[in-house]
Structures are given as C-alpha cells and as structure tokens.
Amino acid sequence: MIDVLVIGGGNAALCAALMAREAGASVMLLEGSPKVWRGGNSQHTRNLRCMHDAPQDVLVDAYPEEEYWQDLLKVTGGLTNETLARMAIRASSSCRDWMRSHGVHFQPPLSGALHVARTNAFFMGGGKALVNAYFRSAERLGVRVRYNAQVSDIELRDGVFVAAHLAEREVDGQRLPAERIEARTCVLAAGGFESNREWLREAWGQNERGEWPSDNFLIRGTRFNTGVLLRRMIDLGADIIGDPTQAHMVAIDARAPLYDGGICTRIDCVSLGVVVNREGERFYDEGEDFWPKRYAIWGRLVAGQPGQQAYSIIDQQAIGRFMPPVFPGTQAQSLAELAGKLGLPVAAFVDTVERYNRACQVGTFDHTALDDCHTEGLTPAKTHWARPLSKPPFYAYPLKPGVTFTYLGLATDETAAVHFNGKASPNLFVAGEMMAGNVLGKGYTAGIGMAIGTAFGRIAGTQAAASAGFSSSTTNTESHHADV
User: Fold this and answer.
1) Cys-Cys link to 265, which of 57, 130, 256, 341 (CB 3.0-4.6 A)?
2) CA angle 131, 133, 139 (to 5 degrees)
3) CA 363 centroid distance within chain
4) Any idea which fold 2-192+227-242+407-483 has?
5) Domain coordinates of the chain in residue numbers?
6) Which keywords belong to this entry (predicted)?
7) pLDDT of 473 strictly over 80
C-alpha cells in the first residue's frame, strides 16, 4: 500500500510529496491535468515573498516578520489566522536552501517598476521552471507521478482517509476505467474552484443591474481547478473557511484568453493614471499604495462596475515607468478621440479627466515612494502619484476581472490536518489553495500565495509521513522505492 497519496500537482502538492519522500515514505502524486499543463497555478507564478532580518542572497535590505505581518494584516483587513499566517511568514525566511536542493534557482535582485527586490525572491525561469524542477526531483527520489488523474471522490471512515477514487475517463482517445487508490495517509492540494463557471455563478449571483458578474471573469490560472475535490470534501462534512466570492482577483487585459493567461496579462499602469468605467467615471483611488500591495484589489473593483469593464488611462509621461503589457493600448492624440475609440460617452469621459487634472496638487513625483502628488476636492481622491494627464498621446488599456485562485477552503491548524466538526483527521491533510483562506480572508500581496503553499505543503508532507510511521529525520529515500 502507498504510504502517502498527494492529490494535486502544483507547488504545495510537490512540496508535500518531496517532504514525505525525504522522510522515507512511499509517495504517489495524482495530477489532474495532462503532463503538458502540469503545475496548476504555480506554473504562472514568479516569486516568493520572504521574511529576512538582513540582506540574504537574492534579497536586499531587511523585511522583518512584523513588517510582513502588518502588510498581510492591511491587505486582509484582519481576516486572517495570525498563528497560521506567522507560521508561513517565518517559514519563508528559511525555505530557499531546501528549494535549491530540489533544483530551484533564483534571480539576482530585481529593480525597477515592481519595487520588490527587498520583499520577494524571483524564480529563475518563473513558476514553470520551479514546478519542472520539483517534478524532476520527485521522480528522481522515487515519487510515482500520474497525470490525467483527477480525483472524483474521497472515501472516509469517521474522518479517517481510506481511499481516493478516479472516475472513468478518456485520455488520448483511450477509455480508462474507474480506479480506487488506497493509502495510509493523504494530502489534499488540488486547488480552488476558479475554473468552475457554474460554481462562480452560484457564489456571485446576480447584481442589482441584473448582470451575472462572474460570466465576465477571465481565469488567469489553470483551467483544471474546477473544485471537484473541494466540493466533495464540503459534502463529506469537512470544516470550511472563507467567503466563496473572495479570491486573488486582478484587473487584467480584457483581451486576455479565458484561461491560463498568467502574469503577462496584468496591467501595471493603474497607479500612473486614472481608471474609468464604461460610463467614463472614476470609481477608486488609483494611488492608494504600492502596486505589489494593492494590485489584487482591482479585479474585485472592476467586478463591481457595469459590465465588469473598466479602462486604465495614461499619457505619454507614464511610458517607461511600468511593465509593458502584452497587448498594445488604444492610442489617441486627444481625450475626445480616445473616448470615441473606446466607445465611451465623450462628454462624461473628458469631464472626468479634466476634473482630475484640475484637482492634481503636483509635488515631487516619485513612483518609488508614497509621494506628495495628490488630488484635492475630488471624489474619489488619488492620494499619491497624481499628475495631470496632459501630454499626448493618450493610451487606454481595457480591464476585466482576472481570477487567479479562490479563497473558500478547508479549515486547518498548525499540523495542516483537515478538520471534521472541530476534530483533526489523523491521516488527512491539506495544503495550498485548498487552505489558503485560513490566511487570506480577502486581499492579496505579491508572493504570499507561494509562501503559504510552500510552508503548508512542507508541513502537510511531513505530517502525512509521520502519520504513516515515518519520522522527518529518516533519510533513506530508497527503502520504499519498490512500493511505488
């Protein structure tokens, strides 16, 4: 029998599989996608937010625990489990050597528009390189990896994991029979439900305009996160946490693909101009805080606008100050011409921008600091980086909500155990997006998802191996090779 069954194929699942195997357990990993799409949302990531008290290899200056915690507290509005959050924060300071031991490489410190060389370590080659390195290491250590293996059911006995079930399915034109896979312990790391259009509709419902907002959402991440396993665990009585409408939701280019657009579809110039809805009106402070801390609120803001549509407007002064988008912006020599090209009400749009221009109190513009360029007498205000849009050409980028992952998940504790009626399962554990809602009640800050997934993936793998009778001090990874 398999010692540890890991369900999922992203960062958290791979961390769990590697830790369990390093402890000496036999491990099987079930990835629901084909091999070419393996890695879940982790294939689209770029960085890990890291605590450090002094400069460390690829990180500059210091980013101490308390500052990290305050940043998280601010974006979540206090909707976070402090104990679990601080576990992830502390673990982020010491995991990079372990990651390197499994083939992950980091870039030298970055500078420029992202302002995160102090807080975030970037993966050489991005998330795809990270998951490929982990898969290579897992297979080298004897983890058995199976693709096209989406779990349809979990078999429990009084909160104890017994087996996972794969439904009958077609793979590469071949019909595969249903399967039942037993294991001594199991780690659930199969992601959220962001690619389940029906569940998104159920969660978001209709708005006061009679629209179904989620019908206009794009999915930045994998199309394979449909929440089948999460829904089944809820039906089986697992304790849950989080609001089903809360998610890592970013304002992305409205021309992005429905799935798997990834990081390159993000529009990073919001703080350098104004954002208007399709009625030509502003609706939020574009200069509230640094972009890595506040970019993830804009998807939800756009979701609240008519048609779930908005436009990021800049002028020539902003060019070169942000990460260039994949798709070119709509360009015009006047505001009226730009409105006409976008199909916006010309008078309303021009009036919005002109009122903004008049309200700008230009001080010393500095996009690397919370500067003194702000508006006065304008609602909503722009509190930083407010400069009149007065230098043509003008540019517009269409925005729609882009969902990365959902926050509804399974409640857990310091051991990463799944709970039933407040009681921890002795052999069923959870990691990654399926439990991120314990730390992220709402909001997001760049790199925190990878910190949570890495910390609790490693905890879940260690705990699962221990539940199967293997101590983390066990170093013989060959002892159960034949079992897998």
Assistant:
1) 256
2) 100
3) 35
4) FAD/NAD(P)-binding domain (3.50.50)
5) 2-192+227-242+407-483, 253-402
6) FAD, Flavoprotein, Oxidoreductase
7) no
User: How many residues appear in the chain?
Assistant: 484
CA distances, 483 to each of 2, 24, 30, 188 (Å): 7, 11, 16, 21
Distance CA 204, CA 214 (A): 6
Strands (E), 158-261: 160-166, 169-171, 174-176, 179-188, 218-219, 240-241, 247-253
Which residues, at least 6 apart from 249, have a Cβ–Cβ distance to it below 8 Å?
Answer: 217, 296, 299, 300, 303, 401, 402, 403, 404
Fold classification of 253-402 (topology level): Flavocytochrome C3; Chain A, domain 1 (3.90.700)
Residue 427's φ and ψ, nearest 5 degrees, are -145, 15
Cα(289)–Cα(287) distance, rounded to whole angstroms?
6
Residue 34 has what DSSP assignment? -
The β-bridge partners of 153 are 165
Is 83 buried (19+), middle (13-18) or exposed (0-12) by CB count in 10 A?
exposed
Least confident of 7-16, 21-30, 179-188, 320-329: 320-329
Which residue in this structure is represented by tokens 């992203």? 10
Q: Which residues does residue 448 pair with via DSSP β-bridges, in sequence order?
A: none
Question: pLDDT at position 112, please?
Answer: 53
Q: From CA 255, how far away is CA 391, in angstroms rounded?
A: 26
Backbone angles phi, psi at 317, to 5 degrees: -60, -25
pLDDT at 267 over 50: yes
Q: How far is residue 144 from each of residues 6, 57, 136, 303, 389, measured CA to CA in Å? A: 10, 33, 11, 41, 57
Could you give the C-alpha distances from 74 to 70, 86, 246, 437, 444, in angstroms and in order?
Answer: 6, 14, 16, 16, 9
The pLDDT of residue 324: 87
Are 282 and 375 in contact by the 8 Å Cβ rule? The answer is no
